TrEMBL record:
Keywords: Carbohydrate metabolism, Cytoplasm, Isomerase, Magnesium, Metal-binding, Xylose metabolism. It comes from the Bacteria. This is Xylose isomerase. It is found in: Cytoplasm.
Amino acid sequence: MSILIGDQEYFKGIGKVAYEGPESDNPLAYRWYDENRIIAGKTMKEHLRFAVAYWHSFCGTGVDPFGGPTLFFPWDKKADAVARAKDKADAAFEFITKLGLPYYCFHDVDVVDYTNDVNANEGRLQELTAYLSEKQKASGTKLLWGTANLFSHHRYMNGAATNPDFNVVAHAGAQIKMAMDATIALGGENYVFWGGREGYMSLLNTNMKREQEHLAQMLKMAVSYGRANGFKGKFFIEPKPCEPTKHQYDFDAATVSGFLRQHDLLDDFSLNLEVNHATLAGHTFEHELQVAADAGILGSIDANRGDYQNGWDTDQFPIDLTEWTKSMLIILEAGGLQGGINFDAKVRRNSTDTEDLFHAHIGGVDTVARALVIADAIRTHGEYDKIRTDRYASFDSGKGSEFEKGALSLENLFELAAANGEPATLSGRQEYLENMINRFI
């Protein structure tokens, strides 16, 4: 991937970030992400399929509930919305190609600012879609997935597809259509739904059953439209339990899996799982991955982390090697991701230097890449899999095997328990396995 620089270079003094190996002291180099290194039969690039998030990286201004912007971008100065959006695209593709990552992801309103006029918005997005298409061709960068922002505008304060006002639902459908058109035109490999406000604040004013049926109807309409217009990729749903709503209908992986099954959507949908959303739901990230993998709907990842002292979505870049090693063990065992790994993460409010955005992504990339190397080494060693296999060995033959096949009755279990007496106490060896993870790290 060549470095793509527009009329203005926004990240001056920074060249192509390259792999230099674990011994490198260069902070603007990869120490673990060697995109051509073969791990478990595929290159790192094929395994990880890294993407840069358009919103946090090029739209996020550092604003928080207690203070205004702290990040002021040179690509955000022009008064005209389309011209300003093209400058932002120039900056984005310069950054992505300097990082050497293969993909990016966007919401529609990240690409260009919208008005309240649907037709005007469609014209703006179409013009930027053509511009992004040229950027993709020049750089070799691809679109991992697109989506519509159905949560920021005040019209969506009570939800989008689940809004009690049909006029709002119609606006949501219009945005989905436009965002899907852009995704298809740009060769997007997937399309994501994140229901940021698809939920309720109070059941006193909510018909939950009806709202969820409306959500399912909107998803079916989107699938029908996408397939009719040549979209062959996967549709993803990104679970999140709360914030900003009290309770969201896409609470966690198990909830969404049940929803998809109930509404006959499993053939077209998989999950886009986020680390910070898992912890907000009271789960570990590896739990959410395992639930999705077991259901056959492990799609894509939004890579980030939360702050354990804050009960909200802080979207920090991933640095926890233990967490990611455990996660990579599950991903490798499941045969990999259907999508890729998007850095849905932002630099801190006081990280105001141009280089900070590079350091953040390099650290995240290397954390995930190193975890892949470690997880593959653990699986290749063999003891990890053997311990787990041995723990369930009683179901591999004899009466245990008959139980799994449904060949035993409760009466049979009673007779076996009476004949065999109290079972032996068998250790789960949790501490040993935790030490094994640390040993390989």
